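User: I'm putting together a small comparison set for a docking exercise, and I want a reference complex before I start. The sequence is below, and the ligand is hexanoyl-coenzyme A. Could you produce the 3D structure with the ligand included, as structure tokens?
Assistant: Of course. I'll restate your input first, then give the structure tokens for the complex.
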Amino acid sequence: MAAEGNIKKLVELRAQARLGGGQKRIDAQHEKGKLTARERIELLLDEGSFEEMDMFVTHRQTDFGLDKEQYLGDGVVTGYGTVDGRLVYVFSQDFTVLGGSLSETNAKKICKVMDMAMKMGAPVIGLNDSGGARIQEGVLSLAGYAEIFQRNIEASGVIPQISAILGPCAGGAVYSPALTDFILMAENISYMFVTGPKVTKTVTGEDISVENLGGPIIHASKSGVAHFVCENEVETLKTIRRLISYMPQNFMENPPVIECTDPIDRVDDILNTIIPDNPNKPYNVLDIITTIVDNGEFEEVHKYYAKNIVVGFARFNGQAVGIVANQPNFLAGVLDIDASKKAARFVRFCDAFNIPLVTLVDVPGFLPGSSQEYGGIISNGAKLMYAYGEATVPKVTITLRKSYGGAHDVMSCKQLKGDLNYAWPSAEIAVMGAAGAIEILNYKELSAIKDEEEKAKYIAEKEAEYREKFANPYKAAKYGYIDDVIEPRYTRFRIIRALASLASKNETRPAKKHNNIPL
Ligand code: HXC
């Protein structure tokens, strides 16, 4: 009988914990169009796989009447489960308990799953929905945050860390997601800022809405803080599942290889004519990416930020890769500050987690102008160069069309230890484009010609001469800087073979405490 009573108590306590801050607050959460912390976990993980930890934890504060505000679990649901059968650790902030605010004990719960994730070498996923530091706990809460930040830093490059923002994320609280590998934001319900609209108004006089200051669209397109913006929470959680499928469990492992149902020797005739005859005419590099990868599946990262470069995950013969591609459809695919930062961060993630890099090059150079120079295009462009040069994963580069100047070097060229560098016959590998080169090389002659028609004829002749010499891949191929010139329609097969040959690649860089990438 006593045993029955014990079990009854356990069942009751569990039921109580599952209610978080109570039915009323759960209803309020639903009314805001938000799911609860537990509903989110159910959607994120494989059905029935969640094992909760620390369900009975409560805070130990008495100030400000907190002794009367005790809730089992204390505002965060933590534990482990699986995504496609693979172990992941998860914490999900429960807004129904004191606004999901971070207390000393609730921070300890988060730290516990992070420590377990590190010990087991498994990804950690954070679902954020919190009013920030629990105001009543003062410095204890700040210390709790710092404990989490330190773990984020130590886990960086060891296990994948993913953050979804599914509600408020303000003040210093933003820095835990910022330290992780990927941030996803759900439309309509999420925002992130260091300083909210009210304080912003008081301090600077700027009047701005929550949405415009830190909503998903802003962070996905302007600040680049968010890598993904999703229509709703369900989409956000599904995206995390897909994202995880491209990653290994930790830096010691390779990403999972899945069965490939798409013929590896598929010949894509359309690629032979995809590059316009006019070198100044744009095309959409996404059409090339989705043609060559397995089943046309491409998980684009940072889709709305620095659209002049495309980055994302795909598979070749079931093997996950990171793709970096200049996008001629936007700003002619030029490299600027934002594009360099975006691609550098992505390249570093792939390298940290043994995901080979496939780079598709069509770049007219770096964006000129004072705003770029003042903004530090020098050190920002160097980030991408650095990222490629330090990367030791297999690196396959295909030059589709332009590869000019410094940007040629940056985009995974042979001398930055690109492993296999191929070019399409349409490739133009040169210090700069024909028009610019003629201006510089023939400045004196051009100024001497007064007749406009004659000048145009002279330029056309010189351009033809220049293009004949440089606007092709054969000069680079002659020096071995390009390993082969390939027919576009065989690109998929050539990449798959290249990756297969590089599977056993073993390359190291000099030992050091850590590097000093130009931040
Ligand atoms: C304690 C909090 C809280 C907090 C919310 N609550 N935030 N309790 N500490 N930080 C409580 C509320 O009192 C309320 O309790 C419940 O959570 C729901 O909050 P509401 O305000 O009713 O919800 P909503 O209208 O949706 O507004 C959400 C909100 C607002 C915008 C997040 O609650 C808010 O502005 N909170 C304060 C945010 C903040 O300034 N935090 C500190 C940031 S600085 P009841 O009992 O009524 O349900 C920071 C520093 C971190 O975090 C430093 C790290 C280094």
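Residues 269-427+472-501 form a domain with the 2-enoyl-CoA Hydratase; Chain A, domain 1 fold (CATH 3.90.226.10). The chain has a mean pLDDT of 95.
User: Thanks, that's exactly what I needed.
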